[in-house]
Structures are given as structure tokens and as C-alpha cells.
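Lab notebook, bench 4. Still working through the backlog of constructs that have no structural model yet. Next entry is a single chain of 336 residues. Request: give me the C-alpha cells for it.
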Amino acid sequence: MKAVPLCMSKKVLITRIIPPLAQELLMKAGFEVSVWPGAGPMTQPDLIERAKQVNALISLGADKLDKTFFSQCGHLDIIAQFAVGFDNIDVGEATRLGIPIGNTPDVLSDATADVAFGLMIAVSRKMFYLHKTIQQGAWKQFEPLKNLGQELTGKTLGIFGMGRIGQVMAQRCMGAYSMKVIYHNRSRNAEAEQQFNARYVSFDELLRESDVLSVHSVLSAETKGLFNKEVFKRMKPTSIFINTSRGGVHNEVDLIEALQQGTIWGAGLDVTNPEPMKSDNPLLLMPTVAVLPHIGSATVEARNGMARVAAENIIAFYQRGHVPYCVNPGVLVERK
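Model written out:
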């Protein structure tokens, strides 16, 4: 494959302020880099106008890269997403236009799995809720039958989406609590089965057998709103639902109802639907719920890693015609 030639005129737009490592690596490689300095994302018209002036983009999840965007920015050579997920991008349209899409897996697996693991513990012992009772002056005395939670040792962990993050979550739960691991995936994961003695099950079995069901899938047409009223009814009434993937995977109205009616026991969310969550959402007042503001990758190590990989995806593309982490690798094959 003939690599796209790198020259000083190649321009990259970074659509938000991210760790400076990305800009440093790109500039060292000879790129001209501009960064949107705003506190929040650009409007789509602003994004389109700025993207028209560059050759490559480092985008974030709040950027709407749909058919409207690509109808005016089909000239882009490559888009590097500063995230693992890419549901904000019309990958099909990008592929049709021959634009490779890079993402940043691996570097945030530990950080995101830590959040899923922490949410599981927090929900099982009602930690977020009970912390609030102290602030409200409601902690008066020891009460033997009050504030009871669940123990996790020996329970069954169900993983929906046994990718990199799901495997780290399984490792955490096995090591700390000797949990049995079952999973449902689009395909079997032999590595997970060997390392964690994970058992591949149908979706119905996953719902029926999981004491903790942790979601680590992408948001797609198949997974959007998948965890709804009917699905929650098929879970154990003692089960805990964890979602650190994308809020759109669960129906939040149905989740609220399932918790209020005791259909499931608890929920830990790092992502919400919609996002951000409103401050009066009833989930925030429930004893067996823990909600975080989408901080899965929010560590110094993970965010620096994401910046590095996003930059390396662009640099490698121009220097070698290769994108180390490519969502639509068929585009690169067609360029050969």
C-alpha cells in the first residue's frame, strides 16, 4: 500500500482540549495542529467549518460526525477518535468515502474496569446512599437490621461484551471475590474461557444466572435500548446491573421502574440515558444505586494513553499507510 505522503502542510484539528501529549507528538512529526479551546463541544456548523480547513481530525464522543458532517467534510484523510466508542460517528458513511476511523482501546481498560468494579461494590453495600445519610444527620446509632447489603464472594458475574474491559473486570472479580464468570458475546472468546474459566451462555441464560450483570459492549443498532423492561424482568430480583459502556444500551425509564418495583436489586452507572443526567433523577435517591458522571477513563494514565494512541493513529497513517487501531480496516485494504 502506498502511504499518504507526510508534509508540513498536513493539518490536524483536535476538537477539544485533551492532554498535550497528542499535540506534542503530532507537531514533532511535522503536522500543523489546531485545538478548539472551548469548554464544551463545538456546534456541528462550527465543527464543519473548522474541519474543512484541515486534513485530519481528533474527535471526541460529543462530536456529531453524521452524514451531514461527511457531506461537507468528505475530504478528510483520517479521523482519530479520542475514545474506544465511536457511536457518534457514521462509520458506514466514512467507509464509503474511504476515511479510516481510529480509536483508543487497551489504554483505558484498567481504568474503566476499576470503575465498574467500584460501582459493583458501592451498590452491593449501598455506599453512595449511606454516605448521604451521614451528611443529612440521619446516622444516630447502630441498628442490627438496618442498612443491610449483599456480599459478593462466590456470586456469579455476567459479562455482556467480553472484550478488553470485560476481561479486566472478570479478572478483578475472580481475584477479589472468587466469582464465577459467565458471558455473552457476538462470538466466543477463547482467551477469556481459558484464563477465567468463563462460560459462554445465551443472552437468556446471562440474564437468568447473573448476580451481577456488567455491560461492556459497544452501542450499536443491536444494543441500543437492549436492557429494557422485558429484559430486567428476566433477571434475578437480587441482581445488580452495571453499565460503564454507553448509556444508550439501557432504557433509563425502564431501569427506574425495575428498581422501584424490586424487579432487580440495584444498579451502578457510569453512563446514563440521557447524558448528562438531570440532578432530580430519581436514581440519585435510591439506596441501591450508584451513579458517576462518565469517568471510566478519567485517570492521568488512561487519558495520556488515549492522547498518545490518537496521535499515533494519525502519524502511522501518513507515514506507513497503517492505522494501529482502526474501526474500519477495510478502508486501508482498499487503498493498497
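Notes after review: The longest strand covers residues 156-160. The radius of gyration is 22 Å. Flag for follow-up if needed.
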